[in-house]
Each structure stands twice: as structure tokens, then as C-alpha cells.
Amino acid sequence: MNARLRSRNRALVRYLLLPTIFLAVALLGGLRVGAQTRAFVFIAPPLVTLVLATLLMLLLVRGRLIEIARWLSSEHAALSNVSHALTLGALFFASAQAFNSVLPERGLMRWMFSFFFLWTLWNNQFSSFNALRLLRSLAALFGTAFVLKHMLLASLAAPDGGWLKRLAGVVLEGITAGSIDVEQFAPATGYISFLTLALYVAGLILLPPAPNNGDDKDAPRAAEIVHSFERLPPPEQAIVRQSILLAAQLRAADASPDALETDSNRNFIEVD
Amino acid sequence: MRHKLLQSVGIAWTIIFAALIIWLYATEPRSVGDIGTRARVAVGTYEIDRARFDAARELFRREQYRAARDEWMRADPAARDPQTQFYIAYAFYREGWGRAYNDDALFRQGLETINRAIALAPDGALNVEDDADLKMRAAAELKAELENGLERTASDFSPLKLFRERK
User: Fold this and answer.
1) Position A173 confidence tier, pLDDT thresholds 50, 70, 90
2) Which residue of B has its CA nearest to A83?
């Protein structure tokens, strides 16, 4: 019964919740609220965000947050492939809009932010990542950009003089830094952006590396672990094998303490 | 079987939600209320607020053109009714008209609005017949008048210009 419930919940997450979260990000990522009129302003994803989203998708594949060959495969039914393709498409546009949400709308700052995003994502293509590290890194990347745009830049460009503008005025007394070309939006824009990024990161956390299909629905995590194990290099596979054997021996020792010493000695010799 | 049903529902939901997002970005509603207006336009049930339209016409007759325009804009928030757009353009014309010189900014807005009205009219032909207060009944005539007002010609310096009549 538990297995059936778990399978149903996983299907709900995969087929309904994940596309909904990613599409909500795609909707909210380009939404701003005008400072004067309080009217909605919809900003379609600029070309640079599509480039950034492409690099990020490559990174997600490299970091094994997505195993593309298991999401889209000739072994799946057509309906499954369509569903998975839509989810991945939603993820792509959510990524583009997540960048759109934290990029300044125009001016020098927009190009600087774009350049730093490109630089970071390009460098990361050549680093070794695992899924958890990649998730942490992405959360930090978007978090930093959010703070820079919606707190620091918004404060610097505020017409009534935000706290940072006053601080800069004191520090740079007598020095003119020129005006900062940043578009003004209502404070609600920052809250929308925060919600967008929180949803995006939550979606990435919920996203399984590979969708579970009928063949491994009874033990989906075990299948994932076995699959991960098979992709490890031989020395690392040996370390995993050793750890599993040790754990098994410790459990056996709990049952019969006399058996522990002889069995563990034998296994250490075998691994060596 | 249940998985297949969930998959089908998920696919349908994803496509509908994605279409909604594309529609929102294409129509760019300015508020939550505006979303409803644009949705009524999309499904073909949009109608202007007739009471506001009539109130605006009263203001227009009393030569309160700016107030009349505001009221017409509220009567037709989606700017989809050709007749209302015609009246808004007419209000720009009358407010911008001057015996010695015209207000170019108002004339430009008027020209933009009358172009929209013509684009919205079936076959691009728009005539307002039921208003005796108007001296120009055809949208094409109003457009020509606005374009003439924006052009710079030698006749602009003619003293006879002072005796011309506002339409």
C-alpha cells in the first residue's frame, strides 16, 4: 500500500507539480510592477537569458541533476516522452526567466550582470560537480544576483535615496559617481522575484535525476543508486563495495557477536 | 492506467498553462482587472461601458475634452471599440486645434488613435452617423485633418488661416 502511495505521489510531482512550478517561474520571472502606476509590466526573456539558460541546462546535465538519456528515451512510451519533454521545456524557460528576474532591465549594470553570469556558467562547465554541490552553487548564484539587483541596486537608484545611496553619499563625499541607469519598479517586484527564485530552487530540489518508470516503481531509489554505482570509476566502486560489506558485517555482529571478527578479517583481505 | 491518466492530465495542463503565459506576455495586461477585460476580448464577449460612453459624450459637447477622453478610455479599457476610439481622436483634434497654430503633441496622439480606430473598423471604413454635433463623420476625414495639421507648408504663414473654422 505504501509503495503504491509513494508511486502515486511521485507521479503527481513529476507530471503535475514540477511543470506547474516551472511554468509559474516562467510566468513570474518577467513580471514587474511599475513604480508610479503600479501597473503590471511583462518583460519577455531577452536573448542573453536564453543563452544563459542553455548553459545552465548543460550544467544540470553535467552535474547529473538531469540524466537526459533517461528522461527522453526510445524505451519510453510516446506519452511519457511527450510529458518528460514538456517538463524539460518548462525547466528551460523557467531557467531563462529566473535569470530575467535578477538581471537589471537596461544599462551598464545589465551587461555587467550578464557577463558575470556567462563567466560563472562557462567556468563551471569545466569543473567537477555533483548534483548537491550544483544545487548549492545555483542557489548561491541566484541569491547573490537577487541581493545585488533588488536590494543594493534598487537602493542606490531609489529616487527618495535609499540607505545605500545615503551611505555612498557619506563615503564618496565630493566625488561624483554619476547616475546609475537602473529602471525603477515598485517594491512588490522584489517580492515577486524572491518568490520566483524560491519556486525555481524548490523545483530543482524536487526534480529527480531520472523519471521512474514502471520497471523500477517498487524500488525507485534502489534503481537510482544502482545506476549511479554503475557509472562510478572502478576504484570508487571498490570503496562503495567495502562500505556496504562493513555495514552488513556490523549488522551481523549485532545478531551474533562471535561472527564479527572472523568475517571482517576475511573481507578486508578480499578487498585489499 | 492511473499513471497514463495522470500523464495525460499533466500534458494537457502544461500546454494550457504555457498557452496562458504566452497570451499574458502577448497582451500585457496592466492589472488583475485588465486580465479579465483582455480575456473577454479574446473570447469575443467584450463590450464597452455604454453609460460611461454617453457621459463622455456629454463632456465632449460641453468642450471638456480631456475629461471626455478619460471617460471614454474607461468605457473602452481594452481600446477595441472603433467608435469610441474615433471619439477619443476627435477630442484630441478639438483640444489641439488652434486658430493660429495647432498643438502638435495632441494632434500626434489623435492621429495614433484614429489609425487604431480605422484598423479596428471592419474593412477599415468607419462612419459615425448618429451625432449631429460632429462636423466630420468619417474616420478618413478626421485622419486627413489631423495629418494636415501636422504638416508644415507655406500656407501656415497665410493670414487667412486665422479665419478658418474648427470642425
Assistant:
1) low
2) B11
